[in-house]
Amino acid sequence: MQLVFVDRKTKSFAVIPETLEDLWLLEKVIEPGDEVEGTVIRRVKREDERGSGQLRKVFVRIRVESVDFHEYSGALRVGGIVIEARPEDVVGKGKHQTLEVRQGRSITVRKAVWSEYAIDQIREAVNESKKPKVLLVSIDDESATVFTLSQSLRRLAIVRNPHRGKRMGSGDFSEFYGQVLRVVDDSEPEIVIVGGPGFFYEDFIRFAQAKGSKKRYIGVRTAMAGTKGIHEIVADRLNSVIQEHHLSQISQYLDEFLRRLAKGDPVAVGDEVEQYAQAGAVDVLLIHENFLLANRERAREILTAVRNGGGKIFIIPRSYSPGTTVEKMGGMVAILRYR
Q1: pLDDT score for 71
Q2: pLDDT tens-digit map of 88-106
Q3: Which end of the chain has fewer CB atoms < 10 Å from its terminal CB, N or C?
Q4: What is the distance between the alpha carbons of residues 125 and 107, in angstroms, rounded to a whole number?
Q5: Contact 96/47 with Cβ under 8 angstroms?
Q6: What is the mean pLDDT of the chain?
Q7: DSSP class of residue 13?
């Protein structure tokens, strides 16, 4: 979650949700009577224009009447009455309008009744998203450029090869690679994407793993190194890599759950997850998207209890076939701290 601004005088805030969990949090925060601002797409055709007209973005502000997930798209749908629109001749005041809130799209909310608790929950989601889960490294024989990716892309370091410009054997890169690895280890990321021209990115990954680094490394060939190489990674591979990483985490926790279930270690299945969530005993919750959509109110309470208890939450997409195991077990399973 990205927090764009908070203004207590106008009882308003703006956020950019980044995950399904963020959308579920917003569903709890936005209430009937609040005002929400966003954009909708409308087809506009002038009287003298032929054809079907042009698509235009239209700003609208609505007074909220309903907030829920749409069963087919998975987007948060906020419905209400239009109280402001620009331009007005496209969407008139007093008409009913639905705003679709999706991951990566900004939304502004003006609360009818200010809630510090709601803002605290948003700040908690923001703090979670600031953790440098992804580190990007662009490397060649002269230098390594390192960026962190959390809410934004930020340069962390440029490590110069101390022997650059000299004739070097294959073993002479160890000092350079060691300096880069120290930067990586100090950042404590979950995943490291290493790119560059030639063999250097692959060579560095082998070096890091030989030194015992347990982080997940992914190699990406790029045409250039340095900041331009970082931008190549972001443009071409980042979204798919992060999605693969998220599913990899789900797979790891699902495997851990099944191992614990077979050994009789503390886990919960189906309906019993709810009581352990309320008791603060859930360490990891795996909940299927179909269960969320079919049991909105109940799922919201369970998610809130797990989040308040400091547990991790993973929503399993319908497109992820191994997740049918969880669906058949009542739609949710949990790894427990205790029973």
Answers
A1: 47
A2: 777 778 899 999 998 888 9
A3: C
A4: 15
A5: no
A6: 86
A7: E
